[in-house]
Amino acid sequence: MFNFKVLKQAMGELEENQVMDLLKEFVATSPSETEALEAIAACQAGISTVRDSFESGNYFLGDLIFASKLLTEAINILKPVLGSGEETASGTIVLGTVHGDLHDLGKTIFKSMSEAAGFKVIDLGIDIEVADFVAKSKELNPQVIGMSGVLTRAIDVMKETTEALKVEGITSNIIIGGNPLTKEVCEFVGADAFTINAVEGEKIYQGWI
User: Fold this and answer.
1) Calpha distance 22→39 (Å, rounded)
2) What is the separation of C-alpha 33 from the centre of its chain, rounded to a whole number of angstroms?
3) From CA 145, how far away is CA 98, in angstroms rounded?
4) Are strands 193-195 and 92-97 parallel, antiparallel or unpaired?
5) What is 89-206's CATH number?
6) Nearest to 7, CA basis, from 53, 43, 32
7) pLDDT along the chain (209 residues), means of 10
8) CATH fold of 4-86, please?
9) Domain coordinates of the chain in residue numbers?
């Protein structure tokens, strides 16, 4: 019988080779979809350990980035035994770095963690025009729209994008992320929440779903 506790521990300790070997061994047993979801739950529990260690200062940003990539690899290994990704998705997130900003590190971490948590993430990329956010959000009606930006000028673009989304009647929760953001900026933009930490951001929108 597969030991999910060992998988959780290996994930939490970022033991890449062990995690990959365990998951390949698991998939080779032709598990049911329910069992595969249990494996994902173990991976998610492991990443919670990583998050806690990061927040307490025992892990660093590089560890967090590595953990995100490891989780993505784990999900990819399990996909064949999960059936349709749409059937198991917890919700949909439209994500992008706003027009005029080319930074995507925080967005990448946020995306990987969200996918590992079971969400379908549509990553529009960087330097995304207001109209592109609106068009994709109208098409998909996501639960969450995430806008990223670390440049000060990104704040005005976030505000413009938020206003355009609301004019079009899009009611998705909006979260903005990036270093220059504060509570006051969030209110100015008109977003539902803000974060300067990808880990915190994922926790915020989990409370909306």
Assistant:
1) 10
2) 22
3) 12
4) unpaired
5) 3.40.50.280
6) 43
7) 95 96 96 88 86 88 85 84 60 96 83 80 96 98 96 96 98 93 97 87 84
8) 1.10.1240
9) 4-86, 89-206
